[in-house]
Amino acid sequence: MSACGVYDLGCHGVYSITLPLQPKVIPNAICGICQKGKEANKRGKPEVLIHCSQCQNSGHPSCLDMSIELVSQIKMYPWQCMECKTCTVCEQPHHEDMMMFCDKCDRGFHTFCVGMDAIPMGCWVCDLCSKDTSTPQKKGSVKTPKKIK
After folding, report:
1. Cα(83)–Cα(14) distance, rounded to whole angstroms?
2. Cβ distance 1 to 18 under 8 Å?
3. 10-32 pLDDT, tens per residue?
């Protein structure tokens, strides 16, 4: 059931394979933070952009303070930018003040959907990642790219 092509014996005894998502392609995309394309990030170095699965927002991982490990993790599911982020449990974007983000995969969760009263201080890891000790961590808090008009 891994996103790396591991076999999963599903119901009826049929094997299925889960593969990484095909990357979203946005020609001539521009980073919402530094306003530059893949040719140069905020440090002037070439860097591939990541793209929101729900909208046209894009960003350089370095501009979003994402580690290489986190970028490889978000390629395994339909990643959402901060403007599109929904709760992984209830799939709703509402109650932003109660939305927290896993420090290992960047998925969003409402505190009340995971049985918590408040957003915890410091690092928080979701149940999906706490079961997988190989999941990477963020460098720091993720910045929100500016909306492309």
Report:
1. 39
2. yes
3. 444 444 444 555 667 788 899 99
pLDDT in tens, 90-115: 999 999 999 999 999 999 999 999 99
Backbone φ and ψ for 98, nearest 5 degrees, come out as -110, 10
Residue 85 to residue 107: CA distance in whole angstroms:
8
- pLDDT digit string (tens) for 58-68? 999 999 999 99
Number of residues that make up the chain: 149
Q: Is 108 helix (H, G, I), strand (E, B) or coil?
A: strand
Tell me how far apart the alpha carbons of residues 114 and 111 are, in angstroms, rounded to a whole number: 6
The full set of domains in the chain, from first to last, is 23-64 (no CATH), 80-139 (3.30.40.10)
Encoding tokens for residue 87? 């709760």
